[in-house]
User: Which sequence fits this backbone?
């Protein structure tokens, strides 16, 4: 690298513009591959973008904090986007109202299934106690899951990562799994995705249909509440 | 357009304030979603501009998770140390939850038309 290029790099590496643009380009690349695959959910744009960015940051020896200085502008929009989930939900108000009781029962059962299955499977595979406490709330949306993990004595920052990986897994597998399980009901599909895979699942659910997306967003919100109440209670009863 | 973005941010802000004031175990944006929902119920319709604003944000919802997802790099070692139990819980646990939850909902609503 000659002197001039070096100084351009030093300037760009210190500016949030570079990692902000990198995030958009990596995601656009993921979308392009997803389109090329004929909209195959296994070709998940979030996973592709994350892998590409982690690879690039590792090669250029850039730390996460430097990356996040730019990427935080995108991260920030998660808040208003979550608020905006009320709009598709309102559009489906009639469908929600006619199955309200079933929705509540399903959310409670789903929240317990998510916690019990992750803790049970990890325990069978030899996880440490701290890991069990870290992954128990993994299906809830990130801030709720981190709060619960902290309360239980897990590692909240590791919980955040496990939550994201859970969302990606749900987004990749849901439609194939539900086809195998002979689930055709859009409401059941939406609730299952929102409970198991929070916001990343909900993003996928909107690709299936507006109705599936609305139920998924609703399930994500209700599951946050159910998990925050039930998981700490469950651990208190067990220990 | 700006006015509608202000509505979304105000709902979130009010949600954050409520969480701090009451100690509710929920994130501010989720409370904000409930507040906006109640607002729409009261108004009885969705303003066209808010509808467009919401569509713009939600059409790229998954992009918004990328910055947090890159945080995986911070914990590569911890995950590597217990790779099998973590991967098992994430992959099998999530798949099991999806199927069980969908079956329960389908069972409970079998009689009502979709």
Assistant:
């Amino acid at each position: 690298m000659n002197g001039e290029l070096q100084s351009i790099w030093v300037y760009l590496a210190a500016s949030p513009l570079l990692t902000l643009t990198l995030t958009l380009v990596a995601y656009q690349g993921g979308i392009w591959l997803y389109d090329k695959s004929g909209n195959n959910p296994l070709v998940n744009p979030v996973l592709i973008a994350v892998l590409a960015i982690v690879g690039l940051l590792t090669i250029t020896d850039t730390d996460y904090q430097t990356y996040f200085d730019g990427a935080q502008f995108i991260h920030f929009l998660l808040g208003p986007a979550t608020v905006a989930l009320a709009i598709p939900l309102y559009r489906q108000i009639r469908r929600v109202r006619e199955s309200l009781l079933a929705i509540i029962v399903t959310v409670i059962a789903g929240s317990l299934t998510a916690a019990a299955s992750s803790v049970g499977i990890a325990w069978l595979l030899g996880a440490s106690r701290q890991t069990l406490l870290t992954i128990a709330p993994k299906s809830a949306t990130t801030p709720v899951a981190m709060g619960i993990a902290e309360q239980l004595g897990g590692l909240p920052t590791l919980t955040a990562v496990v939550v994201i990986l859970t969302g990606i897994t749900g987004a990749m597998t849901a439609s194939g799994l539900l086809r195998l399980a002979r689930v055709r009901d859009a409401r059941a599909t939406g609730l299952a995705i929102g409970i198991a895979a929070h916001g990343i699942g909900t993003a996928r659910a909107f690709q299936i249909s507006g109705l599936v997306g609305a139920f998924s967003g609703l399930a994500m919100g209700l599951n946050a509440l159910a998990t925050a109440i039930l998981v700490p209670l469950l651990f208190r009863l067990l220990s | 357009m700006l006015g509608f973005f202000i509505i979304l941010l105000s709902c979130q802000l009010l949600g954050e304030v409520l969480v701090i004031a009451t100690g509710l175990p929920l994130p501010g944006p989720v409370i904000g979603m409930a507040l906006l929902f109640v607002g729409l119920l009261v108004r009885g319709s969705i303003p066209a501009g808010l509808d467009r604003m919401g569509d713009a944000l939600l059409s790229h919802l998954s992009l918004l998770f990328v910055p947090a997802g890159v945080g995986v790099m911070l914990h590569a070692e911890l995950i590597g140390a217990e790779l099998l139990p973590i991967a098992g819980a994430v992959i099998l646990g999530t798949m099991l939850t999806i199927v069980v939850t969908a079956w329960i909902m389908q069972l409970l609503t079998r009689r009502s038309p979709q």
Observations:
- Chain A touches chain B through 114 residues (CB under 8 Å).
- Residues 122 and 128 of chain A are 9 Å apart (CA to CA).
